[in-house]
Amino acid sequence: MQSVTTKGPRAGLRERKKQATRAALAEAAVRLAAEHGAENVTVEAISNAAGVSPRTFFNYFDSHDDAFVMADPDIGKRIRRAIRDAPAELSPLEAVREAMAGELADLERQHEFWSLRAKVLQKSPHLLARGLGLHMAEERDMARTIACRLGPSAGTDITAGTEAGTRTGTGAEAKPCDDADIELYPRLLAAVAGTAVRVAIEHWYAHSPPMAFPGIFRDVFTHLSAGLPQPAPQTDDRPSDGRSTES
To answer: What is the CATH number assigned to the segment(s) 66-225?
Structure first.
């Protein structure tokens, strides 16, 4: 999951400026690619459109392709930190839901960007492959974090390494565990949650005028919490999936 607008309520002025520059580069890349094709857009063109130098571009992205598929490389870290710091009374699914909701709070005003980005990726198979690789890596990292939150029964030792520091509120990254040490439930929850967010975003940006994203996001996780039973037929005129009925 990638958001072009970052959160982080404790971010200082310098960090907010960095976030704004990264977002400007990502948006410039997508807009140029939508017009000319990603393969025909250079780092120089992206940098110029964002008002920075090509050297500055590489302070934020390792490669040309990353500007199209990795708008915010820190989003995974923030989500994992939020999962670890979530109240103990929340279920694993609720903790993941709230962590993701925090990162998507500003999505409403990005409808055009997400629509353009989807069209760019659909026309560039190598970008889709790059994005899939990044998504799978984030999914594995989230599964490790969920396993750490659940404790030793989920296949990892939460008292080991830096994870012990997270229990005191330091927010340090969890000590990585081997993929073979992660049990089925953390893997499944990470994969399902990531897919749920992708489906919610795709459903949202596919509609014009846009639906209300928070409603779609809420409905998706309500379905998951209920175990995905078949929805009952609607008996009134109210639209589903967060579409507003207000005039």
So the answer is: 1.10.357.10
Cα distance between residue 46 and residue 24, in whole Å: 9
* Amino acid at residue number 186: P
Find where tokens 């090509």 sit.
Answer: 54
In the structure, what pLDDT confidence band is assigned to residue 240 with cuts at 50, 70 and 90?
Answer: low
119: amino acid identity, one letter: K
Quick count: other Cβ atoms within 10 Å of Cβ 42? 12
pLDDT at 105 over 90: no
Give CA–CA dist 35/54, Å, rounded: 20
Question: Is the confidence at residue 37, as pLDDT, over 90?
Answer: yes
Q: What is the CA radius of gyration of the chain?
A: 19
Report whether 31 contacts 112 (CB < 8 A): no
CB neighbour list of residue 222: distance below 8 Å, 6 or more residues apart = none
Domain layout of the chain by residue ranges: 66-225
